[in-house]
Amino acid sequence: MNELTTVLIRGIVGFLLMLILARIMGKKHITDMTYYEYIVGISIGSIAAELTFGTQVRISNFILGMVIWALLPIAISKLELKSFRFRTITEGKPTILIENGQILEKNLKKENLTIDELMIHLRQQNAFKLSEIETAIMEKNGQVSVMKKSNLQPVTPKDVGLLIEQENQPRIVIIDGNVMEKSLTDYGYTKEWLLGEILKQGAKDFSDVFLAQIDSMGNVYVDLYNDQIKMPQIKQKLLVAANIKQLQSNLVNFSLQTDNKEAKEMYKTYAKQMDQLMNDMSVYLKE
Prior knowledge:
Elements: H1 3-25, H2 35-53, H3 59-82, H4 84-91, E1 95-99, E2 102-103, H5 105-110, H6 115-124, E3 133-138, E4 144-148, E5 171-175, E6 178-179, H7 181-186, H8 191-200, E7 209-214, E8 220-224, H9 236-257, H10 261-281
């Protein structure tokens, strides 16, 4: 086996092993890593690079080294979950940089942080004026969290006594013309209702839609493949049919969710009536 082939094989092995170890070590964004986790990541990468070109050393030695460097942080993380004191030793503590509007110079020196660097961190948190800051804390991962003074914080609906409906996570319901039926049914909607919504925004069918998202309030965002299509005149009769189908679906869902026998029968009866209504009106609902 020539040298180039050896390097190629060892490089592929190193890459695949590093990918597997990264998955085992868990999901963590680079900005959320502590300093020792950052060092571990660099070390594993260095070992993988050396595995590729260090042909004079057995491949099993490199694999063992990468596994050791991956398993030790996992073991440390498990211990950190069980012991606050151990977590403090390995990760350190957050450092208060500004308290009660006053800059703590001793803590700046402790973190080897200059005024210029402090201002950069503050500006990244949209805090340009020191006079507006109540507290600033350097977190264990090196980021700075900022709390502005109470009279400068934005007013929320709760502050003025407004009651608003709780909004939940939006869901993608169409991707590349394909309907994500689970996301749709999780919010209690049907394909017929969704078709009616995309008709309002210029689509003729699901296949015309590149992406569609629905929020918990029932609002639908639609992006079409053809961006030149203008919103057409809404076909009201088709929308009426879609709304009737949606009402029928809701009644069926209600009948499945309730334990009250009378209510269950009532929902089923009304659902059948909606079906009969669609049959009776089918001739008149055609455009």
